[in-house]
């Protein structure tokens, strides 16, 4: 008897507390004291939900979903289907549009149950309270947390509209397996948008948040199906559906789809992540992204540029790229078929030089996302592949000579430096075309000496080879003798200058970054720069064609009605094998070598690099 009286007294007390709270806040509003405290303590507008971002290919198809711990696709109120909103209102809070953020009757009922069970078994929470808990509080079961929840709910109701609260609630609720919000849940479990859900599927999903572990569809679908029946009955009672829809939904079989995340083209995606940092750094004036991370590495400080990049990715952006899925697949497949199973690695960059976009880029054989990426992170000696850019084009530009002009390919010495031709062979005067197609080293060094080292390097400065430094300004550079070298992507990008009649615009993977409304957030501010005369570019293209038709790159050739040309590159001891060239549409660069340099003499003799380039380009 005493327990019943005590329980009744508690219920009455809670009810009176609720009424007094409402009246008190009305009075307090006149002095603004409680509202001032709430405004200072709780920023109801500070609900920032991380939402998925996407990387799309050149056709606009999504190839990769970017999300962290929370897989979420945020929807605006008007984009949430009405029957989805009504389903949650029917099951969670049918008086949502009438109460001030909390339901006194519901709280009293929950408190009565808790008193009888001697614990916190029910919460009696409204949708507003649940949003307050999801956005600001923990999920601990305590009366202190419940009081804080009431205050947060009251502040939410003061600040936001009912529609905003309902939308944020539906976007924050948890659907198990790292999935948050109805749109991500629909995509994850059914492979469709929430606007395409049937009533049965809607009820099925609405069953999960009540207890995500208990109703996890991937582990306990029979439990979720059972609760779905109750949700449908509530939808019927609240006139969300009629009797016919109710019966049809009960009979409908729920079929879950493949829940795998879209994670295609890891080589290209990894490069997009890298380039996004560069784009944000340029647009928002961060320091050099290569140095920013290094400065903070090891000192426990977060890289501010990386933190900003993560913020952007959490805002639900779409990164539009120049990825050509067919080319990417083809290039990766050829590399894997030729090199997998050995310790030889390779990397390819393919650039659509008509629109200055990176169509494909590989990070190595059997590449996994965020592994060491040999396409842009590996810097190797380019060998003779640098000659068209650093030697021949500057020489032609400066001297007004022609490919048929004679150049001395005999022995050369300058300050103790005596380059040798392949095999130690010596030649006399030859045409520039022969020196180019047969890759005579002595002729190349002599030409650079005549042009001038500083003048020659001035021509390649616009290509922004990241690892070049002052110590590289010397004659051995004519043969690719750099301190660190260049990346595959850098060298390939530089070669596009010849396809563009001597002008250069840096090729990019990212075309633009858009927010969830479709507005452009970031876009490269690129402009073309004149590097070589048009005639010079034409002359280099002619000589590049000769390399394939009659020079060191014969194995790279294949039947085509259009242009085909390129240049080989081999470093000392055969550590690195290169071929960079183009057809009418694409410029492609290929590097083959070992991560720990070793001789590839046999592979060079069998023309591995030129054959592989041909297989990739002859698509």
From TrEMBL:
InterPro entries: Beta-lactam/transpept-like, Glyco_trans_51, Glycosyltr_51/Transpeptidase, Lysozyme-like_dom_sf, PBP_transglycosylase, PCN-bd_Tpept
Gene Ontology terms describing biological process: cell wall organization; peptidoglycan biosynthetic process; proteolysis; regulation of cell shape
Catalytic activity: Preferential cleavage: (Ac)2-L-Lys-D-Ala-|-D-Ala. Also transpeptidation of peptidyl-alanyl moieties that are N-acyl substituents of D-alanine; [GlcNAc-(1->4)-Mur2Ac(oyl-L-Ala-gamma-D-Glu-L-Lys-D-Ala-D-Ala)](n)-di-trans,octa-cis-undecaprenyl diphosphate + beta-D-GlcNAc-(1->4)-Mur2Ac(oyl-L-Ala-gamma-D-Glu-L-Lys-D-Ala-D-Ala)-di-trans,octa-cis-undecaprenyl diphosphate = [GlcNAc-(1->4)-Mur2Ac(oyl-L-Ala-gamma-D-Glu-L-Lys-D-Ala-D-Ala)](n+1)-di-trans,octa-cis-undecaprenyl diphosphate + di-trans,octa-cis-undecaprenyl diphosphate + H(+)
High-level lineage: Bacteria, Bacillati, Bacillota, Bacilli, Bacillales
Organism domain of life: Bacteria
Any single Gene Ontology cellular-component annotation: outer membrane-bounded periplasmic space
Protein name: Penicillin-binding protein 1A
Penicillin-binding protein transpeptidase domain ranges (all copies): 346-584
Stored Pfam families: Transgly (PF00912), Transpeptidase (PF00905)
The species this protein was found in: Salisediminibacterium halotolerans
Keyword set, alphabetical order: Carboxypeptidase, Cell membrane, Cell shape, Cell wall biogenesis/degradation, Glycosyltransferase, Hydrolase, Membrane, Multifunctional enzyme, Peptidoglycan synthesis, Protease, Transferase
Alphabetized GO MF terms: penicillin binding; peptidoglycan glycosyltransferase activity; serine-type D-Ala-D-Ala carboxypeptidase activity
Stretches the record annotates as Disordered: 282-306
Stored PANTHER family: BINDING PROTEIN TRANSPEPTIDASE, PUTATIVE-RELATED, PENICILLIN-BINDING PROTEIN 1B
Domain spans labelled Glycosyl transferase family: 61-235
Record's subcellular location: Cell membrane
Family named by the database record: In the N-terminal section; belongs to the glycosyltransferase 51 family. In the C-terminal section; belongs to the transpeptidase family.
